[in-house]
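Narrative of activities, Objective 1.

The group set out to show that a structural description can be obtained from nothing but a protein's sequence at a throughput compatible with the screening campaign. Below is one input-output pair from the validation batch, recorded exactly as produced.
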Amino acid sequence: MVEARAEYGISTRVLSVSAVGRLDAAAIADGVPGIALMEAAGAAVAARAQALAPKGGHVLVLCGPGNNGGDGFVAARLLEGEGYSVSLVLLGERGALKGDAALAAAQWAGPVLAALPGDLADVSLVIDALFGAGLSRDLDGAALAMVAAVRSARLPVLAVDVPSGVDGESGAVRGAAFEAVETVTFVALKPAHLLEPGRSLCGQVHVAQIGAGEAAIAAGLAASLPPLHHNGPDLWREDFPRLTRASHKYTRGHAVIVSGPATKTGAARLAARAALRIGAGLVTLASPAAALAENAAHVTAIMLRRCEEPDDLDDLLTDERLNVVLLGPGLGVGEPTRDRVAVAASAGRRLVLDADALTSFAGGARHLAGLIADGGGEAVLTPHAGEFARLFDDTKVMQAGSKVERARAAAAVTGAVMVFKGSDTVVAHPDGRAAINDHGTPYLGTAGSGDVLGGLIAGLLAQGMPAFEAACAAVWLHGDAGLRHGPGLIAEDIPELMPTVLRSLT
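Output recorded for this entry:
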């Protein structure tokens, strides 16, 4: 077995491509030879290749003209030394290689092919070392042909850094890309490992620590960039609400969920149930008179208050103990909803705005931002892609690059924590902090699931959790419930899974 000299794991910190380049440069400046980093990277790749390919199998290594290709040369040499049959294809001329890649190539004694072998039938594994995360153009020519041939042959691919053809920052496909069963990356995750479609093309991702960047990260070298994280309990566990012997329902906060009219009340009840299940001490459903009986037929521990007009909500919020308001699920689109948002914001309450509360401000993100700012309270907005596009139609937010950058721009415009939902949900704070969530399942794509998420966020906010951390935690816990349930999931199941999910955190 090749000694990888690497540790595998998932880091909470996600680094941009430029940040990783800076960390590599810093390590080399501190006296770590670049070739040593390349040897460690290639060894990490070779170790994973041995786990994927049968002993003595045929491994096809595709090398590009840069440092990714150098990693491929190292992996090829180590695998051949372990008894594997290795074919190596170089994109470009061997004499054109420079620096550490040239040094790595010089250690390879086998033939260097200029094109794929004509017969790929006996290939056990393809190592994709063509291009790394820094690719900034569409694949073409020989590289594009290699992707097409390997995908057509349905060969398993082990990608180095990211599958070639995937943009390391956005996860977008540059013309075409390999689909890997596994990816080995170095130092930390890159955005493309978590953002779609890159995430789906990476397969299982291993982060190899190769001796470059770890100390620099600890020393704060990457601190000049807004922090980007892989969402998980390590990110928000310290801020998660904890009960003490002195805790009681009034110390755990009181969330208000504003209900829609009769026949459109289910979404608000789902949110209210979720807020209670996540630990809010009290939850009140503020309901129009015509919907009181309908709501009363379905709730027990959740309290009901008549709330017909925006002025009724204003009267309700004179009670300072009601510290969080969720508006949007089933509320209806238009001026009455905008007025209710204005009332809740002016009361200085922590807000969660979802669904109709967002669509009611379509093309009016700056108006909404003004209401939030004037009230002085915190807000969390939870749009899916369609709501996001409608809300920010009057801004330059949609012109930002990746999903992370769009979420950051939206948070900056509104002054609110943004939960940009999807299979790769991004949570962003106005100060630039962001997290990408990959802890979920397509089974969560069911009616009412988003309403439950809003309720989870509201319940955590009611207990005093900081808004960014509360949003990140709710997104992860929501995903964990979906993963635990699996097929057949409906929105009503999610709050009922919270006791199991929460026990797993302790």
